Amino acid sequence: MTSRPSPPAAPDDDRPAPGLRRRSLLLAAPATLLSAKALAVDQPAPAPAPTAALPIDLEEASATALARALAEGRATAEDLVAGYAARIEAIDRHGPRLNSIIEMNPDALAIARELDAERRAGRLRGPLHGLPVLLKDNIATGDRMSTSGGSLALAGVRAARDAHLVQRLREAGAVILGKTNLSEWANIRSTRSTSGWSGRGGLTRNPYALDRSTSGSSAGTGAALAASLAALGVGTETDGSIVSPSSINGLVGLKPTIGRISRDGVIPISHTQDTAGPMTRTVADAALLYAALAGPDAADPVTLRAPAPAGPPAGPALQGARLGVARAYFTGFDEADAVIEQAIEVLRAQGAVIVDDVGLPKDDYGDAELTVLLVEFKHGLAQWLQTFAPQAPVRSLADLIAYNRAHRETEMPYFAQELFEKAQTLGGLESPAYREALATCARGAREQGLDAVIEQHRLDAVIAPTGGPSWLVDYVNGDHFGASFSTPAAVAGYPHLTVPAGFVRGLPLGLSFVGPAFSEARLLALGAAFEQATRQRRAPRYLPRTGPA
Q: What is the average per-residue pLDDT within 94-115?
């Protein structure tokens, strides 16, 4: 059980400071713990080295490569868990001090040893057998770790049971390595929030530039995967919380169709828009993790209505693929948009038919979306607390608001809870205002949005920049993230894949592929082909800042 942390550090302290849209070890020689560039004069001091060399180099190692090493006997699950734990100690807790892991699983080594024994006996649970996975700390685990949503109100509270997706991961042989920090309550508390900050976890820092935001709300998963603290990570998204931190941290992120992965056990914002999804360093790894996560669950009836997953399309994925450019969602920053223009030329050179511009309207249903999210959050939070945390000191949104007021110094040092307070004043799921907002969202995102342009232009996917480069951490004004392409797919409930597309002054940018419902296999194939043609993923350098001191 994790002890309650001390009050957050001030922003100008030399420790990692704690910090509406859902955005809004190397196992080799110790001297190679960080890359040569990361040891330059303007870099943080070298991280402490692990005490013993191990057989596999984990930096940038893919899950598919690690699975081969396990199968060939070149490494064990125990090696992987010990190696990642050493990286976390060196990079997350010391050295650059990313602060991305909110809690380590105290049973991870024991689980790894059990899985190694099963492998030696010829028993394999599934495709993830022995592979460590990091989970965002709003996903329930029925073990000795807390499930807190980043809130001190739930620190030390153990979930009554595993979320369905965690059950599936265990059945597939995964080792739950730990929980990652997040924007508290998945960024639904305030319009002036600082992404990557939670009362329980403090502030997670961006491994590409420590003064820049990780984005949110899956901030810890994004930073941890970028720094190779695991090869597989699970985030959650309501609007942008997988794709934005994936883009900003140079990752592949997949937000699946609503209904493809069970929401059972995930601390909710919106049953209309919430979903978990993979965050990885390669498309192949995202596909591997997605296959393990996806499946029907009686506890989430919408998953029972989902069609059977499609297999990958035959032939070269980009040859003849019709991709529509959504110009309205370009960033307006010439350097960032130039990266996307180059990506479009690569897609065209690989045989894609580029339809430019498809005229997808800029989302104008933000007020309606917010109404939907707030009403559904108040309703869903009480249900989750009753089912998964009946022993928690809070039972409802009203209780949580009161808790935050009573613990203002640690829970609200930088921003307030005006969205919580607004949600508390709204009606329920049968209220006319909610029903009207729900209809407005469906009309804007689907009927007059993605459905219209995909049908009119016979598209396989709509493409655009996932968003702009990372912004400076700002405790006064909160996030100022600029352009984002997350909302249409989020509100429609459709799949959205982001793949590294390049860099602006050392900061990563992603290219988005958005398709119709349950087109994940097609998007993954398109993304894999783009990835192989460009190979824009680069390991972070842990720069202390992006400008003069």
A: 98
pLDDT band at 53 (very low <50, low <70, confident <90, very high): low
Distance CA 533, CA 241 (A): 27
- φ, ψ for residue 497, nearest 5 deg: -115, 130
pTM of the model: 0.92
Backbone angles phi, psi at 381, to 5 degrees: -60, -45
> What is the rounded CA–CA span in Å between residue 379 and residue 436?
17
pLDDT at 45: 37
Alpha-carbon separation of residue 34 from 48, 53, 248 (angstroms): 10, 14, 20
Query: Structure tokens of 381?
Result: 């939070």
Q: Which of 24-38, 44-58, 534-548 has the lowest mean pLDDT?
A: 24-38
Give me the active site residues, please.
Answer: 136, 217, 241
Angle at 237 between CA 236 and CA 242, to 5 degrees: 80
Residue matched to tokens 């995202």: 286
Q: What is the DSSP letter of 543?
A: B
Question: Side chain identity at 124, as an amino acid letter?
Answer: L
Dihedral angle, C-alpha 235, 240, 245, 250, nearest 10 °:
110
225 Cβ partners below 8 Å, 6+ apart? 134, 231, 232, 233, 249, 251, 279, 280, 281
Q: What percent of the chain has pLDDT over 90?
A: 87
* Cα distance between residue 64 and residue 282, in whole Å: 9
Give me 132's structure tokens. Answer: 């460590």
| Cβ atoms of residues 377 and 270 within 8 Å | yes
E strand map for 84-174:
101-104, 132-136
If DSSP codes are grouped into helix, strand and coil, which group holds residue 102? strand
Q: Is the pLDDT of residue 49 over 90?
A: no
Give residue 5's Cα distance to chain centre: 24
Summarize pLDDT for 510-549 with one digit per residue, the tens: 999 999 999 999 999 999 999 999 999 999 999 999 877 6
What is the CA angle 373-374-379, rounded to 5? 100
CB-based contact 392:146 (threshold 8 Å): no
Average pLDDT over residues 235-247: 98
Upper half-sphere CA count for residue 350 (Cβ side, 13 Å): 23
